[in-house]
Amino acid sequence: MNQFWTWARPKLTVDKRLLFTYCVVYFIWGMAMNWVGQQLEIARFTYWWQVITCYILYMVPISLLLRGLPFHMQYAYGLIAMGLLEFGGYALETSYAYPNNLLDQVFNERNFSLGMALFFALYFPLGNKLVSKMYNVLFG
């Protein structure tokens, strides 16, 4: 565990403006995706504040750890992280999948969580790219 913290600490110790940019971008992104999931009746969080726990407290630190890796590595590691998050969310019933939703109809309900994990794993490489561009525009 000591080795992990030795590796992770410098990646997590970033400029406060960068951390703020991540938090704002991921919060807006999370709220938007929760809204889209509800409107399309695919899935939703049980409580709105889960956007904070999932997108900011879980996904932002993982994004920081994966930052700088090639796209495919960010996606692969992100897939593990999102697989655990999706599994936990539906197992604990803190996320709700609408019955017979669009993904169930296309991929069948047994593949719903896998489809969600495969999709949301893209957040890490795309989120890192988006935040990097926004940070450079805002703060040079």
Protein described:
The chain has 140 residues and is mainly α. Helix content is 75%, strand content 4%. Strands 1-2 form a two-stranded antiparallel sheet. Helix 2 crosses helix 3. The termini are far apart.
Average residue-wise pLDDT? 94
Largest sheet: 2 strands, antiparallel
Share of residues in helices: over 70%
**Structure classification:** mainly alpha
Q: What is the molecular shape?
A: globular
Oligomer: single chain
User: How far do the termini sit from each other?
Assistant: 35 Å
Order of helices and strands: HHEHHEHHH
Radius of gyration: 16 Å
**Helical segment count:** 7
* Count of strand segments: 2
Strand arrangement within the widest β-sheet reads 1-2
Summarize the structure.
The protein has 140 residues and is mainly alpha-helical. It has helices spanning 2-12, 16-39, 50-66, 71-91, 102-107, 112-120, 123-139; strands spanning 43-45, 95-97. The protein contains seven helices and two strands.
Give keywords.
mainly alpha, 75% helix, 4% strand, 140 residues
Which secondary structure elements does this structure contain, and how are they paired or packed?
Blueprint: H1 2-12, H2 16-39, E1 43-45, H3 50-66, H4 71-91, E2 95-97, H5 102-107, H6 112-120, H7 123-139
Antiparallel strand pairs: 1-2
